[in-house]
Structure formats: C-alpha cells, structure tokens
Amino acid sequence: MKIARQTKILEIIENNNVETQEDLAQMLRDEGFAVTQATISRDIRELKLTKMATENGKQKYVSITTTDAEVSERLIRVFKDAVIKMDFAQNMIVIKTLNGMGMAVAVAVDNMENSDILGSIAGDDTVFCVARTHSQAVEFIQKLNRIINAE
Questions:
Q1: 34 alpha carbon, distance to own chain's centre
Q2: Distance between CA 94 and CA 124 in Å, rounded?
Q3: Minimum mean pLDDT range among 45-49, 70-74, 89-93, 109-113
Q4: Which of 138, 137, 78 is nearest to 102 (CA)?
Q5: How far apart are CA 134 and CA 93, in angstroms?
Q6: Which tens digit of pLDDT belongs to each residue from 79-96?
Q7: Would you say 82 and 105 are in contact if contact means Cβ atoms under 8 Å apart?
Q8: pLDDT digit string (tens) for 34-43?
Q9: How far apart are CA 4 and CA 36, in angstroms?
Q10: DSSP track, the chain
C-alpha cells in the first residue's frame, strides 16, 4: 500500500501544481487512498520532496532526482535564499524562513547529515532542531551562518 501511495504521490506532483499537504491529501483521497496529514508528511520526507517556486510566484512540490552534487548545491541555495534568521537556546535551534519554505529548509538541514543534530521539525515558516548539547548547537549555528555568508 505504501509503495502504491508513494508512486501515486510522485505521479500527482509530476502532473499537477500541488501547493500544500492538504491539496496532496485530497488528490490522494480522490484516487482512493485513505490518508492522514501525518502519513502525507512522512511520505514527503521519505520521498525527499521539496517545494519550488513556480512562474506565477506560488510554490509546488517537486521530487529531487538529480546527482548528489546537484542536490547539495540546490539545497544550499534554497537554504541561503529561504532563511530569514536563526537563534538558539541551550541545545534547541530555531530557524525562521520565508512563508512556505520551512519544509525545504528542513530537508536542507537534514541533508547536511550532522550527527550532532538529533532531529528537526518543520512548519510553514519555522524549522526547529535539537542538538545533543549546547556547544553542538553553537557549532551548528556557526556552520549555518558560514553557509549563508559564503559567496
């Protein structure tokens, strides 16, 4: 069932401009899949979907199916373009993004594969990360600032 659902998700986003998880869930229900928001969120993460700007200024989900180098470069560009500000308290890191870019920034953060980060949660315009320690949170924020400030 999961494979069929995820295959259908890829088909849907290839043939439609899907802007939100709710839109995707409705399209899947229309195709006969019983899904919840949590299922959609997991599928998006597992399929490594991200949002991309369209010609009309809106955003849509897309699948990243390129080489690792191209993905890394694209994710860094998305991260640099979407992050508004970052801050931390103890071992918790909060990244504020442009509206609708929280998931894309979280994908970029997750793909940095930093073992000091236990996990991240994305909202519409915020990413919340938890580091193991305060000093690891400081180091991670410094790394993210170097990425943003790199030419």
A1: 24
A2: 13
A3: 70-74
A4: 78
A5: 10
A6: 888 999 999 999 999 999
A7: yes
A8: 999 899 999 9
A9: 16
A10: -HHHHHHHHHHHHHHS---SHHHHHHHHHHTT----HHHHHHHHHHTTEEEEE-TTS-EEEEE--S-HHHHHHHHHHHHHHHEEEEEEETTEEEEEESTT-HHHHHHHHHHT--TTEEEEEE-SSEEEEEESSHHHHHHHHHHHHHHHH--
C-alpha separations of 120 from 18, 89, 133, 151 in Å: 23, 15, 15, 26
Banded pLDDT at 67 (limits 50, 70, 90) = very low
Find the largest Cα–Cα distance for the chain: 48
Residue 137: per-residue pLDDT: 94
Give the predicted TM-score (pTM) of the model. 0.55
Tokens representing 131 are: 């580091």
Tally of residues, the chain: 151
> What do you get for the CA distance between the two ends of the chain, in Å?
45
Which candidate, 137, 134, 111, places its Cα nearest to that of 122? 111
